[in-house]
Amino acid sequence: MKKLCVMLFMGLMAAYAQTPVFLPGTQVYAGSSPIDVTWYGSPVYYDWDGDGVKDLVTGQYTSGNVRFYKNIGTNINPQFGTSFDYLYADGSPITCYAS
């Protein structure tokens, strides 16, 4: 019975599988300069400061620091200031090193 359920599940997965469609990338700017964190940035669009507008939070490969870009626009038309702040917890920088 267990084998039958697994085979049925796999058959359904194959029947409904779709090829993913990826849209072209979009450059994100802070002021008039493109944001560049080198490799492996892993950006997240999240309301970090609780003001109801989603901000940009991203890692930085070289140091592992986490950058915060405040959204001074709207959720529909985000705009980020000309600079960023590093995020801290208990007085120490939040870091996420690539391994």
Explain how this protein is built.
The protein is α+β, with helices and mostly antiparallel strands. The protein has one domain (21-93). Helix content is 15%, strand content 22%. The protein is built from 1 helix and 8 strands. The strands form 3 sheets. It has a 4-stranded antiparallel beta sheet, with no helix packed on it. The chain has a two-stranded antiparallel sheet with strand order 1-2. It has a two-stranded antiparallel sheet with strand order 7-8. The radius of gyration is 20 Å and the shape is globular. The mean pLDDT is 81.
Task: Name the features.
15% helix, 1 helix, 22% strand, alpha+beta, 99 residues, two-stranded antiparallel ribbon
If you compute it from the alpha carbons, what radius of gyration comes out, rounded to the nearest whole angstrom?
20 Å
Largest sheet: 4 strands, antiparallel
So how many helices? Answer: 1
Name the average pLDDT.
81
* Helix content class: 10-25%
